[in-house]
Amino acid sequence: MQSQIDLFAEFCHRRDGCLCLFLSYIHHSSSMASATSLYLDPSIRDWVLFPISLVMILVGVLRHYVLLLLQNKPKPQTRPQIREQRALTRSQLLRATAAHSPLAPPFYHTISQNLKQAFTDSVYLKDGPPAPKKVTKGGTDSDEPEFPQAPSLFSDPSQMDNMMAQFKTQTVVMIPQMVIMGWVNFFFSGFVAIKLPFPLTLGFKPMMQRGISTPDMDTRWVSSLSWYFLNFFGLNGVYRLLLGNEDTGVDLQQMTGMPNMATTSPAVPQDYNKLFKQEKENLEFDEGFYKWIGEDVEDRVLRKYGKLPFV
């Protein structure tokens, strides 16, 4: 009985020792945390944090309205241009329905022949049929049509207008951001602006504390230059609240200066003379697949209702 009492007393003594060691560790850690805590001056909030955010919001709203003023209204297409495009669309629709065409054979072949002849004579070109030109071959003069040259990218006024509009948009977006970044870097360099309310890993330290080389500072502290970049990428929601559901006219690639190939690369003008020649060959090829959907429709209806036996 005495040995069991001695063992219990030794266990309690060791447990109290471990508990004391754990409490001393917690006290030491809390004292170190309190020693390394930072307290920001309220003047930093009033003269660094708020001015950066306010200036960026006002510049973003001003940029939105400047872009609206610089946008060019799309020029309406002329009647010959629409006619040129619709002729190609009609031929494509005729070929797409050739295997189960709703047109009877006389109508299908008539439309197909008329389109092929029109494509051969270049009737649907927006500049009209080419004028004949005298060409001398082997001592004899012959009249051959002089087709217009393929349109060039830089000779098309509409393409040049689109390129200038994209250049103006990039200029309006990038110049204010460069000026604001220089202003923040010159006047607010080295300031600790704010502390985030949630923990971050060490991988965010170069992004959150740009311009401040302090390896022992907590990752949640944000420098003034990093606060500028956070506002730069995160104010789109604020713009939507201020401007309604309107498009701000600026996407992420334009804000970062990276060109978007889908928008900055202008479309190459189409040579409808070559397209018409290719479409004529496609019409001739698809005529072999033509089948009228109403062929033997009487026999099919009678078989459906049991008036004729199935073959």
UniProtKB/TrEMBL annotation:
<comment type="similarity">
    <text>Belongs to the EMC3 family.</text>
</comment>
<feature type="transmembrane region" description="Helical">
    <location>
        <begin position="225"/>
        <end position="243"/>
    </location>
</feature>
<dbReference type="InterPro" id="IPR002809">
    <property type="entry name" value="EMC3/TMCO1"/>
</dbReference>
<feature type="region of interest" description="Disordered">
    <location>
        <begin position="126"/>
        <end position="153"/>
    </location>
</feature>
<protein>
    <recommendedName>
        <fullName>ER membrane protein complex subunit 3</fullName>
    </recommendedName>
</protein>
<dbReference type="GO" id="GO:0072546">
    <property type="term" value="C:EMC complex"/>
</dbReference>
<feature type="transmembrane region" description="Helical">
    <location>
        <begin position="47"/>
        <end position="70"/>
    </location>
</feature>
<feature type="transmembrane region" description="Helical">
    <location>
        <begin position="172"/>
        <end position="194"/>
    </location>
</feature>
<dbReference type="GO" id="GO:0034975">
    <property type="term" value="P:protein folding in endoplasmic reticulum"/>
</dbReference>
<keyword id="KW-0812">Transmembrane</keyword>
<dbReference type="Pfam" id="PF01956">
    <property type="entry name" value="EMC3_TMCO1"/>
</dbReference>
<dbReference type="InterPro" id="IPR008568">
    <property type="entry name" value="EMC3"/>
</dbReference>
<keyword id="KW-0472">Membrane</keyword>
<keyword id="KW-1133">Transmembrane helix</keyword>
